[in-house]
Amino acid sequence: MPTPYRQQVTKRPFIGGLLLFILPLPILPSVLSALWGGSYIKFGVGLGAFGLFMLGAYLIRRGLHYQAEQKRRKWARSTRVPWKAIGAGGIGIATALSVLFLTSHSLMAAIFFGIGAIIGCLLTYGVDPQHSSEDVTSKYGVTADEVIEALEEADKKISSIEIAGKSIRNPELNGRLSRITKKARDILGVIEDDPKDLRRARKFLRTYLDGAKRVTEGYAKTHTQQQNDVLDQNFRNVLTTIEDVFGEQHDKLLENNVMDLDVQIEVLETQLKREGVV
Amino acid sequence: MEKNEQFPITLRKVIGIALLFGTVGMASCQAFFGY
Question: Contact A23/B30, CB-based, under 8 Å?
Answer without folding.
Answer: no
